[in-house]
């Protein structure tokens, strides 16, 4: 059973870069045909898919966030990371990492429990 755990700072100042790490156990991030996503849910709003990195290392981004988002991986640690630059209070959300067999993670994939990130000075 794959498990995903998000980690990173819970508070980020405006204009800074938000960095989160997803640590995966019970499965390799290089296993064929899996995609590893970052998703967020702002307070009172729906979930928003941000981007994904494939088993191959290819990356995919939401057009609305592409200019500020970078997803990378460390295969030696079985981790993948999210960097979101120039954050504003509108980036306050619960951030999730997930695994699925499609680029845009669905409810049928495996998700972490999420981590709260607040953008505030």
What layout of secondary structure does this protein have?
Elements: E1 3-7, E2 11-12, E3 18-25, E4 35-41, E5 48-54, E6 59-61, E7 69-74, E8 79-84, E9 93-100, E10 110-111, E11 115-119
Parallel strand pairs: 2-11
Antiparallel strand pairs: 1-3, 3-8, 4-5, 4-9, 5-6, 7-8, 9-10, 9-11
Q: What would you note in describing this structure?
A:
A hairpin with a 4-residue loop joins β7 and β8 (79-84). The protein is mostly beta strands. The strands form two sheets. Strands 2, 4, 5, 6, 9, 10 and 11 form a seven-stranded mixed beta sheet that branches. It has a four-stranded antiparallel beta sheet with strand order 1-3-8-7, with no helix packed on it. The mean pLDDT is 96. The chain is built from no helices and eleven strands. The chain has strands at residues 3-7, 11-12, 18-25, 35-41, 48-54, 59-61, 69-74, 79-84, 93-100, 110-111, 115-119.
A few lines on this structure:
The chain is mainly β and 121 residues long. The chain has strands at 3-7, 11-12, 18-25, 35-41, 48-54, 59-61, 69-74, 79-84, 93-100, 110-111, 115-119.
- The number of helical elements comes to 0
What is the percentage of strand-forming residues? over 45%
- Summarize the biggest pleated sheet: 7 strands, mixed
What overall geometry do the principal axes of the alpha carbons give?
globular
Count of distinct strands: 11
Q: N- to C-terminal separation?
A: 39 Å
Mean pLDDT: 96
Task: Enumerate the spans where pLDDT stays under 50 for 5 or more consecutive residues.
Answer: none
Q: Over all CA atoms, what is the radius of gyration?
A: 13 Å
What is the ordering of alpha helices and beta strands?
EEEEEEEEEEE
User: What percent of residues adopt helix (DSSP H or I)?
Assistant: under 10%
- Which structural class fits the helix and strand makeup? mainly beta
């Amino acid at each position: 059973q794959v498990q995903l755990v998000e980690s990173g700072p819970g508070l980020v100042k405006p204009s800074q870069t938000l960095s989160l790490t997803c640590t995966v156990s019970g499965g390799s991030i290089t296993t064929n045909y899996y995609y590893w996503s970052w998703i967020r849910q702002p307070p009172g709003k729906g979930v928003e898919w941000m981007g994904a990195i494939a088993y191959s290392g290819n990356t995919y981004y939401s057009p609305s966030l592409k200019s500020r988002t970078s997803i990378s991986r460390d295969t030696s640690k079985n981790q993948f990371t999210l960097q979101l630059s120039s954050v504003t209070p509108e980036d306050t959300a619960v951030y999730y990492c997930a695994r699925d067999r499609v680029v845009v993670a669905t409810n049928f994939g495996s998700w972490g429990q999420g981590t709260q990130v607040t953008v505030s000075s």
